[in-house]
Amino acid sequence: xxxxxxPVAFLLAVLMLNLIFxxxxxxxxxxxxxxxxxxxxxxNVILFPVAFLxxxxxxxVHD
Amino acid sequence: MTDKNNKIPFNEDNYTHNINRNNERxxxxxxxxxxxxGAAGVFAVSSLPWGVLAAKELNGLGDKKYPKHKITDxxxxxxxxxxxxxxxxxxxxxxxxxxxxxKYVAYQNACxxxxxxxxxxxxxxxxxxxxxxGKFDVxxxxxxxxxxxxxxxxxxxxxxxxxxxxxxxxRYEA
Lengths: 63, 174
Ligand code: FES
Hints:
By secondary structure, chain A is mainly alpha-helical. In chain A, 84% of the residues lie in helices and 0% in strands. Chain A has helices at 6-30, 34-61. Chain B is 21% helix and 28% strand. Chain B has helices at 2-7, 29-58, and strands at 69-73, 82-86, 93-98, 104-108, 119-121, 126-129, 134-136, 143-145, 154-160, 163-169.
């Protein structure tokens, strides 16, 4: 069966976004921009279900 | 006896002969994706405390509340004069300076060098620590001369019905 590496690429992108938003979140916290901190935290949390969906899709189609 | 040793493990008596552990540690595409999803989960969970802390700060829960404390009456403090008081605790000595008709500033007056009491030098318009001649800017509490390197903690004051009250301590900012 032919396997697709597209989901892997997507997951890596999600991880990259996680890194970016985590760093942004911590920095904004120390700059006392608390609204931005919360926004970044929410995005980080939302990225988890997104990653999970990508995994589900990618694992079932071609493996 | 000797030939028995050579036959171990016997095919039938060996409990592990049917366990195949080849490739057990191989990281395939699926396993790799699982790891990535797990990492995303770790990121999500570790973001939560930051969000909670930030929300707390936004709601002002991070600010300590002190009961407001009357320092003096406006009448009894001429412009350019200073009065000592204690805030927020009875051993936290502080100084209130009237700079103009409307402008009051107050600082915790323990010098940020070695905690000597800081005085208001009216004619020079700056706050002076006699111990090692540290000086502070009266408008901001920033150190301007001598050994101190950190600003004096500012106290928020409020004028109400002709009296001056201390209402809080400014958060320390490094
Ligand atoms: S204690 Fe104030 S300058 Fe040293």
